[in-house]
């Protein structure tokens, strides 16, 4: 994205100096044939050979570039020109910017006043996501040559990447004043206009393209500006031109993936995302120029997920996981990994992955609701939707925006509500959520979260004699949080999050009992206030061979319950009252430290040590894992976990090289130990199979039985789960997926000794097909079969059942209208539930949304 320049050597003669200067200018204008001609007129020297290496790389002649570099290594092994050529080979051909950085630092030590070397060093630092070091190198170069246009142009582009628009524009205007036709100035000012949503962006970038037709970056920017202006044909032409000019830039296929998904072209999105992933991996690049999107996660996972290929999505996200990438962290919150039964334990998603992603990139608090912006620019999008089921009606309003005040600010606001009535039960739910974030250049940023959930449920039942039984509940939860990160040094961050949730609940019930001499009315009134505080302080850093993480977490839950029971004899009016007050204060702390070590391209190790203090007891734990690629297209992973507080809402890493133990409902003193093994294999470019086995030792579980007074709390249980999963990309926007899962779970001790755990059938099978068409029509059809299950009654089991679910979606071409129809349990088969709760049947829901 930035301009490079060869070294400026002390030439042998004045004529050589003139020829080399002319060659540099010709190279900057894209006239590579003239560069070659001019270099041929200069007497052989390390400077000329190094310039020739740059030319060979620009012409995609890797063999010549390596041959010339070997000549330099023999003729001038310790010169700055040799080091610069070696760095160019490492960065451009070997995909090794780490080595390139090391070589360029040595070269700068030899020639500390070389603006060209400092410029090249800055480009490599930027490629490694080292904006502080990149800016420092560029500003040091400007101390030597304050008016160097190449260095000024690269500094301006870096500032644009960091959302420092005003500073970048000032540099662009300075360059334009010095040279009214400057490509560097026009590129900077055009991109600044694009990021400020200025309609003049397209015209400015047209001038930049005319000044430098051979620059892929100009075509990318002009393509983006053309799309914003509504000229999609010109936009696509420019993106195609950029792909021809620089076929190895991963940003170009990332853009192709974004545009393909915006057009509902699933196949094209998958092809482009795979190409981008290959280039990012080959050249060790981050793709950070395209903003993270918390609605989509990583490109390849999002592309596969658009047609329901959850196995491919997980595999690609896990293989490309970057602990310091907001996109990777957002993907963790969306992936489907492993599940048992219909409502049983699973390891899907991770709620706090969004918090971790926002800490790294607060500006991802908002995202576009129609078409994706390739570069962040001011916007306000609104979506209003309604949804209707057989017994309920719901609606929502969602607002997303981005502005510069003058700091960049991203914000999202959502209101939703549900009203449902089934028989004598009325249920209302209201939700609101605000997320806002800002960024302070390269150093970091902060975000804030505010939310409220309010649910009211009431049920009335006439019981005769003019009496009515009543059950009601009122549950209100308010949440607030503040988080962010501060960049200590390159790829090293201090992370913070502090949050508080206050929950107020009230449950009231009235019932009656007839005795021989009395008619009794029982009034039960329970009010509970719960305040939960969480503070998380973490440190994350990356070095040349791996990634370190460490942190401290504090959790405190203060619960105050007041219960009153009135018993009234309706014959004589006498009332007896009982009161109870209970205060519980539960505090836990966690400290953790871990390392992910990249041993070689085929082998990765990961370990994490934890210590939890729960109710005064210290529990040591940890995780260890290994990932190995035995052959291309194969991946073998193994992990072991001991967790002394598995129910904690932690911001510590939850995956071990992509493996996550199944999640169960734990009491406050729950404990977990587990081992997991997974093998994935690609079959061609379309099929993927995965085999995963987990064995878990569980302590102190708790299950909701539907009775607020009685819960089911197994003290200890064991479970072994094995699954075979398969995905097949059929093409034409269609994907096929299936899984067969066997679980063997056993409760140890108590009345249900040796019984399986709730919602863990011995066998679960599912088969599904998903599709997405350019017309905007998409959806999926899924069949799920579960064998006999735990019933909640000793010696009895719930029957096996086969159900079919269908989802149909449609979106208008301009994405302003979206509609959907969802049918769960299409054939209305009764799905029995444990503890004699009412069986569930068919559920029908229609959705409609309008976007502005």
TrEMBL record:
Signal peptide: none
SUPFAM superfamilies: Porins, TPR-like
UniProt cross-references to Pfam families, sorted A to Z: TPR_19
Subcellular location: Cell outer membrane
InterPro entries: Beta-barrel_TonB_sf, TPR-like_helical_dom_sf, TPR_rpt
Superkingdom of this protein's organism: Bacteria
Entry's Gene Ontology cellular component terms: cell outer membrane
Keywords: Cell outer membrane, Membrane
Main location: membrane
Record's protein name: Uncharacterized protein
